[in-house]
Amino acid sequence: MDPRYSAQDVVRCALCRDAVAPLYCNVCHTHLCKDCVEKHFSDKSKVHNVVPLEQFLSTLNYPKCPTHPTKQCELQCEQCDIPICTSCISSGKHIGHKQLEIFADFESKKEVLRRDLQELEKFIFPRYQESAAITKTQKTDQLKQSQKLTAELNKQGEALHREINTIIQRKQSEIDEMDRQHAAAIEKQEDVINKALHEIKQVIQDLKSLLDTSDVGLVSKYRSRIAEFRKLPHKLKISLPKIFPLKINREELLKQIGSLSPLSIETEEQDYTVPSPGVESSPPARPLLDVPRLITEIPTTGYDVLWNVSCLSDEEIWTSGDNEIMKLYNLKGELLKSIQTKSGNLPADIAVTRSGGLVYADNWDSSINLVSGTQIQTLITLRGWRPPYLCSTASGDLLVIMTSDDGKQTKVVRYSGSTEKQTIQWDDQGNPLYSSGDIKYLSENRNLDICMADYGAGAVVVVSAAGKLRFRYTGPPSTPGESFYPHGITTDSQANILTSDYHNDRIHIIDQDGLFLRFLHNCGLQRPWGLCVDSWDNLFVAELETGKVKKLQYYK
């Protein structure tokens, strides 16, 4: 019977869920049994105040009945959703209605308040903050884009001005050449006429002299040139050049300037999935063991090298390595199932979905495939890109690392089923977030951050759910000169990030903000590669060369 809706059931402990809870924490508003008090006090983030439940109940202020002012309301009518007193029941107005103890209703609504507050603080408010940050970035980008467009327009205008000036200068040169030819023709004509005028003047003078002379010899020598002079000089007929300016066609000019693509302003609905119970609530802080404890070793067979491990449950793990067979083992090392890839290629990476299916990446035929029972369904087929690594998220989406066929680009793409929802590739300055090529593994944190072990960059690269860079972890500050090349990666219930340091036979643990916490070593690890954790935060490590999966406890 649900204690929130029953007046007869006792209040249960919020931690163990089974024992009767005679105590109550006024700070955390949590019911506790005696056995769980010490565990509750281990959370040092608050100063707890645990009191007997009776003391807490005695401090509650029960409402006065609006219908019977002398009475206190100790019950709640479920149908009317109002507090009622015993006189209200006697009045007959609530016949057939279910009544709850008002404390049970109070606790139920307090729980709703706590869940709403937690969701608002941990998930919704940060998403709004992220949206506000994105909007701020968009404003900056809008100004930069406007300035860029203006600069490009001015540059095109200057180019057109230069072309027009060049054309005008060319036409001016043509005018200057025609002017020179025109002047030369006139000067030549002028010379011919002036020469003829001079000769005519001389002939006239000679004729006058001959008319006055009585010298027969001189007159007999005269030869008439009148026929020559009757041929008047040619008259220059010059057709002066004209310019015929065309009407400026604004549309053609606009074409020369170029066109602007239309502005597109759309609103896109953001997906928000209410986090699953394991994601909603932050579990109590747990101290790390100084030295991790080896719980069991699970041998695998048929692999020369073992790459990947993924938890199907707390008792079963999927593995894959350097052949086409994916194998399901229990913790005793018994082989429960073997699945061959659809193409016969070896699977580059594997992951267990939220519903318990197995997905694998076929890097050689560029596909993502889902194994359900004995059937294999191809979910995604890529062109121009290869999908070597992937992980499943709390919301049921798939995050896929992709590398371009030429090996020069890397991106992370989010899929819902076979529908692409998000691409993460560049930071705010337009630089690539991830190195090109090389080994990369992926995991989603409890706070929905996307964590990549980027071997080529020598870093764990963490971005938010919106794809904004949060931090890069390149190794602990205590060993600044030591090489760091992460391989496998996983995250646990504390939002800590674990990544395998293959070359140094150890695991790095960092917190959700990139702070180094400690190494997991001195527990016999040899060439650790793939990682996963179960629901109890036990770590499973796939050892590349031994073919073993080692189960480690690293929390107290």
Structure, explained:
With 556 residues, the chain is of the alpha+beta class. The protein folds into three domains: 23-118, Classic Zinc Finger (Double Stranded RNA Binding Domain), CATH 3.30.160; 119-254; 287-555, Neuraminidase. Helices cover 27% and strands 29% of the residues. It has eight helices and 30 strands. The strands form eight sheets. A four-stranded antiparallel beta sheet has the order 7-30-29-28, with no helix packed on it. Strand 25 and strand 26 (506-510) form a beta hairpin. The chain is elongated and about 170 Å long. The two termini are 34 Å apart. 24% of the residues are buried. Mean pLDDT is 86; it is low at 1-9 and 276-281.
Features:
556 residues; alpha+beta; Double Stranded RNA Binding Domain; Neuraminidase; 3 domains; 4-stranded antiparallel sheet; 8 helices; 30 strands; disordered N terminus
Main sheet specs: 4 strands, antiparallel
- CATH level-4 homologous superfamily of the largest domain: TolB, C-terminal domain
How many distinct folded domains? Answer: 3
- Indicate the mean pLDDT: 86
* Global geometry: elongated
Short description:
By secondary structure, the protein is an alpha+beta fold. The chain has helices at 37-41, 53-58, 86-90, 102-212, 216-220, 226-230, 250-257, 277-280; strands at residues 23-25, 30-32, 50-52, 75-77, 82-84, 99-101, 288-299, 306-311, 316-321, 325-330, 335-340, 349-352, 358-362, 367-372, 375-381, 385-392, 398-404, 410-416, 419-424, 440-444, 450-454, 459-463, 469-473, 486-491, 497-501, 506-510, 516-520, 528-533, 539-543, 548-555. It has 3 domains: 23-118, 2-Layer Sandwich (Double Stranded RNA Binding Domain); 119-254; 287-555, TolB, C-terminal domain (Neuraminidase).
